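[Archive record]
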Amino acid sequence: MKKKIGCLHAHYSNIGYIGFALSAYDIELSHFVDPGLMKRVGTDESFTVVDAEKKVKEQVEWIAQTGVDVILITCTNYIALLKELTINVPIIKVDEPYFEAICKIEEPQTILFTNPDTVSGTMTRLQQYAQNNQKTPDIEVIVIENTFELLMRGEKEAYQREVAHVLKHQSQQRIVSVAQLSMVTAAQQVERENSMRIINPLTTLVSSMVNRLNLCKRADQR
């Protein structure tokens, strides 16, 4: 039977990444997007962390009531705000397979971001994950400055060029990964052009979902 997956995103751009990555599998995706939540967290002093936690809880509970088999959360900040829930629907968190891949690496490595607002939440969760799994990865964090604004203005090609430019330089120095779905296209381009591996949260997520949910290829893909 076809799996129904409800996806919670903080930005509309993530719909395309998830849809394309899972397009070969016999599943049904429903997308729920709220770009205003994280914006309000960063600009409205009257909107507390408790308020944000309550909002995420309401969103996840609403998705659970729409008949999905699984909920996929693609925003690390949303995940960091997610507290205990009383729902029976399994939740897949985009960052956990990514953290698993990072924690398997013993050499020094670099994690790249373009959105500075996601760094704190991501690294806090990574540190918690590493501690829970008794890992101590050697990580340098780099934010590609003045780049995320390009994506927010709809200048996707310029955004990808900037990310690819930095990746080409960084990947020559040490093991590199990108922390955001919006950076995956550039990472895969640099991988192809330079025959090197750049860890990204989309590839690790799909691999984990296929194994965890026993996803089947569509009939026309077989």
User: Anything to note?
Assistant: The longest strand covers residues 3-9. The chain has two domains: 3-93+204-221, 96-200.
